[in-house]
Design goal:
The complex is a heterodimer of chains A (607) and B (437). With 607 residues, chain A is of the alpha+beta class. Helices cover 39% and strands 27% of the residues of chain A. The chains are: A alpha+beta (607), B mainly alpha (437).
Chain lengths: 607, 437
């Protein structure tokens, strides 16, 4: 028989599973591990390494070892997340021909889906070895909050790896499928999924007859275990700099060792109260003397370093339940997914939020792949008694005059679905309209993801608003979006099926998006600025109030004086932003102020 | 709907029948009927019903199979089920919907047992509600067409609401929030900088109070239903298209009206053609219930078309002919249990398609007499019965009794004497004559 494998393509680790004789099973790799690092490397001899082999040599070959490619997939070169990665990645990123991201390895530059395809090929090989037959079909999971471009890019990666991706499903949904599989449960559950790079929260309703309905899903594609690691790295680097006056960030190999040590420390702190980070010969000083890094990190310190990250997940949960109109007490079980949920402070935060202990019934690293395999089997097996009613995680709409996005299909709408709305021309004698298909939750078109565009022309010359165009959005069960525009007078229509779009971005669209941005800012800037200004001034006031108490605690140390100095800098910059009336700047400073305030509160609370 | 398409679909006969039947249920009826729950079902029961139907009609249940024309039908069905569930599982929306169909939103809700697996899901085999006595189980074309939620504009036997008709007949009052102006699309070239932005605020005239409660008028109910249908469809009402403030409203209105007429003509013709094709198909299959349902929709769409009217009458006739044995049986049963008004209604259906049969005409006369409300009609059918079978004594006796009940002793006597001529020994005749003298 033909198998459909389920692949959890994770940020740090991947996992493959299959349903055999009705039993979902995770398949171990050659080394006997059930998860495989999502890492690939190119050796000096241009040999390609994947998984554990790549990880093992990552320190000595840091520049040519790619990790966390999932953070890059389906993103545009000039997007904010890519700028973040550029700061910390040891491998080299370059801009591709279509505003996409390429990774330079020894022989050539690779598109991100190509990198992911290498990992997927490995997972395919693991399954084929285990099953003793070729595998052609797969269900791959992605974070619920992935947009259409990211999903399409993931599908492309599957194709490059020689797999027919019969469905892309959301990780928390997959986890819920595995959790509920064969148990005839009838309840409403929340899935908290914190992985290496992404955070998702989903609420599902399952019935004993095998129907799984996603009610709501949300998350942050740039919040995950790596952020916790980064906090430890920062702490180590700052401490080392204070002690030796040497910045370890300048040295790529040192940075890679720090990364490994930070991850290890984080994992150890899940079971121990403290851990020692010991990295001998980490760097050579200016006087050619070998320096060693040795510090002890306690769990309490670690929790303090990362408290705001935990809080971010709590805020997202809160928002998700609110949007879905579901009370915390209506959640009958909480499923934890992803390695990060082993961190005690996270488990604690979730338990506290829902007022109940999370379910321990599933293996956080394997449950997603199992769910993918279950969905794969349910699709291809006739007479299967399980149906997944999934939702679209993002709002879909079109850009209208003024640069705003007009939503057609709201987020969390059950698919398949279709919606039609009537639009008009905005200028006199306008004979063509451009339909810009957007995805995202922002009011301003430019802040959302552009999925595609097409032109409907041949409109009758008439006054503005006289010609009407019906725009229909459709999402089928496979999650494929198609859009059609129809001139109601002539019956003329144009349509597109939204496909991978990294190549679709043209100068024309860019200038339109830019233009839309200008219009929208003109209209909205006033009120938005005013709201932010009030917030920032409130924050400045609060931070300033705390200067005295904080100085009493830390004023005696250089470290502390440094921190206070930095806080003053933050306040100054915030004041400048207010006087410049720059909203973007103001937003940044507001975030910086919030961070400062949290640190200050932490310092005072400890004494 | 080419036959080739049907043959191409990789479905069993039962699956086809289920999908076809469900498609027809989309045409009319309430959301409750669509989900097959009583209208006092609680949230959980509604959910269970939706889940059960989803398992049957979600496109994934047919994954990897070639469905031909059924692919789109399934999508449509599932969307309609989801929309129905979305409304009925949301307290506010359900209350609003209940009011729109004349239900009391504060009525108690109960858990309902799931419908048995064997319950018929196809309209053709669905039992007809003969007790109502007015129409066969023809689903009235709805102001609240669940199909209105289906935004696809493909021509098939699904009827989106008719914007032009709405525009023409809508009362000015609409529930607040149901209308939004059409938004202009981004132009290809940037508009001149000096040009003012088009207003996106809804015209204030459109925000009017909700229909009065608790007893909304029929007109208000209809308006609310339509508003809801529009909301479900996520569709901007065409009648609310943006009118630039600079244009004089009168001329703009007039030009819009002519546009509507024009555009609706095209769209409507397509729809009408599709519906007619589906009628022919259904007739060919012998499914007169389906055909009659579709005809009802057609007649609502094009109320003035004589040929459609003719066709509708013919389909109706065929349907009644097909149903005649059932109706006869039901009429006898009603008569036996002394539900004379019902019996009369049933007999009149049989009589309409079997004008040459003595029994339906005679019995109709008798039931009308027993019911006592329409004696003139009763006499008419008694006469018909006599003309079909001039030698039947009981027909004359019936006629005489009708005249007697109507307070016309002279005519009654004449009829009784006719009866006596045919059979002077009959007891009923003797009694009658004695009474009349």
């Amino acid at each position: 028989m033909e198998y459909v494998i389920g692949i959890d393509l994770g940020t740090t680790n991947s996992c493959v599973a299959v349903v055999q004789n009705g039993v979902p099973t995770v398949l171990p790799n050659r080394q006997g591990y059930k998860t495989t690092p999502s890492m690939i490397a190119m050796t000096e001899t241009k040999k390609r390494l994947v998984g554990h082999l790549a990880k093992r040599q990552s320190i000595t070959n840091a520049e040519y070892t790619v990790y966390a490619a999932k953070r890059l997939i389906g993103r545009k070169w000039n997007s904010e997340p890519i700028k973040q990665v550029l700061k910390s990645a040891a491998y080299k990123l370059v801009e591709g021909p279509h505003q996409d991201v390429r990774i330079e390895l020894r022989d050539r530059s690779y598109a991100v889906p190509e990198i992911s395809a290498m990992v997927l090929s490995e997972m395919k090989a693991i399954a084929e070895e285990y099953l003793g037959q070729e595998v052609h079909k797969a269900v791959i999971t992605v974070p619920a909050y992935f947009n259409d471009n990211q999903r399409q890019a993931t599908k492309d990666a599957g194709m490059i790896a020689g797999l027919e991706v019969i469905r892309i499903i959301n990780e928390p949904t997959a986890a819920a499928l595995a959790y509920g599989f064969g148990r005839r449960l009838d309840k409403q559950v929340a899935v908290y999924d914190l992985g290496g790079g992404t955070f998702d929260i989903s609420v599902l309703e399952m019935s004993s007859d095998g129907v799984f309905k996603v009610i709501s899903t949300a998350g942050d594609t740039f919040l995950g275990g790596e952020d916790w690691d980064t906090r430890i790295i920062d702490w180590l680097v700052d401490g080392f700099k204070a002690e030796h006056g040497v910045d370890l960030r300048a040295d790529r190999m040192a940075l890679q060792r720090l990364k490994d040590a930070a991850e290890k420390a984080k994992i150890e702190l899940s079971s121990q109260r403290e851990t020692e980070v010991n990295l001998p010969f980490i760097i050579t000083s200016g006087r050619n003397e070998a320096l060693h890094l040795q510090r002890v990190l306690t769990r309490a310190e670690f929790e303090q370093l990362t408290a705001d990250l935990v809080q971010r997940t709590v805020d997202i949960m809160d928002q998700t339940l609110d949007d879905a109109g579901i009370g915390r007490d209506e959640i009958e079980d909480v499923v934890l997914v992803g390695g990060m949920t082993r961190v005690p402070s996270i488990e604690r935060a979730v338990a506290q939020f829902f007022g109940r202990e999370p379910s321990k019934g599933v293996h956080p690293d394997e449950v997603v792949a199992l769910g993918a395999a279950i969905q794969g089997a349910a699709l291809v097996e006739q007479g299967n008694k399980m149906i997944l009613l999934d939702v679209t995680p993002h709002t879909l709409g079109v850009m209208v005059a003024g640069g705003m996005m007009e939503p057609l299909i709201p987020q969390n709408t059950t698919v398949p679905t279709a919606r039609t709305r009537t639009f008009t021309t905005s200028r006199d004698n306008q004979t063509a309209v451009k339909i810009l298909v957007m995805q995202g939750e922002h009011e301003r078109g430019a802040d959302n993801e552009l999925l595609g565009e097409f032109i409907l022309d041949g409109l009758r010359r008439a006054g503005a608003g006289a010609v009407e165009i019906d725009v229909t959005f459709e999402i089928n069960a496979d999650g494929i979006v198609s859009v059609r525009a129809k001139d109601l007078e002539t019956g003329r229509d144009q349509s597109i099926t939204v496909a991978a779009t990294s190549g679709l971005t043209k100068d024309e669209i860019r200038s339109m998006v830019e233009e839309g941005k200008r219009f929208a800012v003109d209209r909205k800037a006033g009120e938005e600025f005013e709201a932010k200004r009030q917030e920032v001034e409130g924050l400045i006031h609060e931070v300033e109030k705390m200067f005295g108490p904080v100085e009493k605690v830390v004023g005696s140390s250089d470290f502390g004086r440094d921190a206070l100095e930095r806080a003053r800098g933050v306040i100054d910059r915030a004041r400048q932003a207010v006087s410049k009336k720059d909203v973007t700047l103001l937003k940044e400073q507001s975030d910086a102020l919030s961070r400062t305030l949290r640190v200050f509160k932490g310092v005072v609370a400890r004494t | 709907m080419a036959d080739a398409g049907h043959n191409a679909a990789d479905l069993t006969a039962t699956e086809r029948a289920d999908i076809d039947g469900m498609s027809m249920l989309l045409e009319g009826g309430t959301l409750y009927e669509l989900l097959k729950v009583p209208d006092d079902a609680d949230r959980r029961s509604v959910r269970d019903a939706y889940f059960r139907l989803s398992k049957q009609f979600h496109p994934d249940a047919f994954y990897g199979r070639n469905l031909g024309p059924y692919r789109e039908r399934l999508d449509t069905i599932f969307r309609a089920l989801t929309s129905a569930y979305d409304v009925l599982s949301n307290k506010t929306q359900r209350a609003e919907y209940d009011r729109s169909i004349g239900l009391d939103p504060s009525r108690p809700l109960v858990a309902t047992a799931p419908v048995a697996e064997s319950a018929p899901t196809t309209a053709p085999s669905a039992p007809l509600r003969t007790q109502s006595g007015t129409q066969p189980a023809v689903v009235v074309p709805p102001a609240v067409a669940p199909s209105a939620r289906d935004a696809s504009t493909q021509s098939r036997a699904i009827v989106p609401p008719q914007p032009a008709q709405r525009a023409a007949t809508d009362p000015p009052a609409r529930p607040a929030g149901a209308t939004e102006p059409t938004k202009p699309l981004q132009p290809l070239q940037p508009p001149p900088a000096a040009r003012p932005m088009q207003s996106v605020a809804p015209p204030s005239a459109t925000s009017v109070s909700r229909p009065a409660m608790p007893a909304p008028t029929e007109e208000q109910q209809r308006a609310a239903r339509e508003a809801l249908a529009r909301k479900l469809a996520g569709n901007r009402s065409l009648s609310q298209s943006a009118m630039p403030a600079v244009q004089p409203p009168v001329s703009a209105g007039a030009s819009l009206q002519s546009q509507f007429a024009n555009r609706t003509d095209i769209a409507q013709r397509q729809k009408v053609d599709a519906l007619r094709a589906s009628v022919r198909e259904l007739v060919a299959k012998g499914d007169f219930v389906g055909a009659s349902n579709t005809m009802q929709i057609l007649r609502a769409l094009v109320p003035d078309d004589k040929s459609i009217e003719q066709e509708a009458l013919e389909v109706q006739r065929q349907l009644l002919l097909q149903l005649a044995p059932k109706n006869t049986e039901a009429a006898r049963e009603a008569e036996r249990t002394r539900h004379y008004a019902n019996a009369a209604a049933l007999w009149s259906k049989v009589a309409a398609v079997k004008p040459e049969d003595f029994e339906p005409n005679f019995r109709l006369g008798r039931c009308l007499l027993a019911d006592g409300k329409e004696l003139a009609r009763a006499a008419e059918y008694a006469r018909k019965a006599i003309s079909i079978a001039p030698r039947r004594v009981d027909a004359y006796v019936l006629l005489a009794e009708i005249f007697e009940a109507a307070g016309k002793p002279a005519s009654a006597k004449a009829a009784a004497e006719q009866a006596a001529k045919l059979d002077p020994t009959a007891l009923a005749v003797k009694d009658l004559l004695a009474r009349l003298r």
